[in-house]
């Protein structure tokens, strides 16, 4: 019987990898790669995360600066990824002027809900009378047959929950 003295050929089971495994390739020169984290991801020690650039603590998705690996809010992370530079202070200041997402007291020329008076909504609808109403008032009136009570108004737009 001939003996095999050379090393055994690599197999999928012995190396722990198969030929179809995904390989990480660095981004092309000049582009920045962002790493996403889970929406509920928190910094070490159980403290809430804080964007290392604009210092916000609330964002729909946390990202990481690929150079420093520090957390970035979604806005700063996307800006960095698309433009290869950090979001300017001017844009951060605009976001900080109205942090609650509610209506501002300044002049506004956009649409207004004929029922509750809001200027912010995920989508504009028309009621049976043809008036422009916010999403919440339009859906409420269609489901219940009566206009939405103003007591139910909430200035925050909540995103859909993911299953």
UniProtKB/TrEMBL annotation:
Keywords: Metal-binding, Nucleus, Transcription, Transcription regulation, Zinc, Zinc-finger. InterPro entries: Transcription_factor_GATA (IPR039355), Znf_GATA (IPR000679), Znf_NHR/GATA (IPR013088). The keyword Metal-binding applies. GO terms for molecular function: DNA-binding transcription factor activity, RNA polymerase II-specific; RNA polymerase II cis-regulatory region sequence-specific DNA binding; zinc ion binding. It holds the Pfam family GATA. SUPFAM superfamilies: Glucocorticoid receptor-like (DNA-binding domain) (SSF57716). GO terms for cellular component: nucleus. GO terms for biological process: negative regulation of transcription by RNA polymerase II; positive regulation of transcription by RNA polymerase II. Residues 45-88, 107-160 form the GATA-type domain. CDD domains: ZnF_GATA (cd00202). It is found in: Nucleus. Residues 1-48 are annotated as: Disordered. PANTHER family: IRON-SENSING TRANSCRIPTIONAL REPRESSOR-RELATED, TRANSCRIPTION FACTOR GATA FAMILY MEMBER. This is GATA-type domain-containing protein. It comes from Mycena metata.
């Amino acid at each position: 019987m001939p003996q095999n003295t050379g090393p055994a050929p690599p197999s999928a089971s012995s190396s722990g990898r198969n030929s179809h495994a995904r390989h990480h390739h660095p981004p092309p020169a000049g582009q920045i790669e962002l790493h996403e984290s889970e929406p509920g991801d928190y910094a070490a020690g159980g403290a809430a995360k804080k964007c290392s650039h604009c210092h916000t603590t609330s964002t729909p998705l946390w990202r990481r600066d690929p150079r420093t690996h520090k957390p970035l809010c979604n806005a700063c992370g996307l800006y960095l990824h698309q433009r290869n530079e950090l979001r300017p202070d001017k844009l951060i200041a605009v976001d900080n002027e109205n942090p609650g997402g509610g209506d501002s007291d300044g002049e506004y020329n956009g649409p207004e809900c004929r029922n509750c008076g809001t200027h912010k909504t995920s989508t504009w609808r028309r009621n049976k009378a043809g008036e422009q109403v916010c999403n919440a008032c339009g859906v409420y009136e269609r489901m219940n047959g009566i206009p939405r009570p103003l007591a139910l108004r909430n200035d925050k737009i909540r995103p859909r929950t993911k299953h």
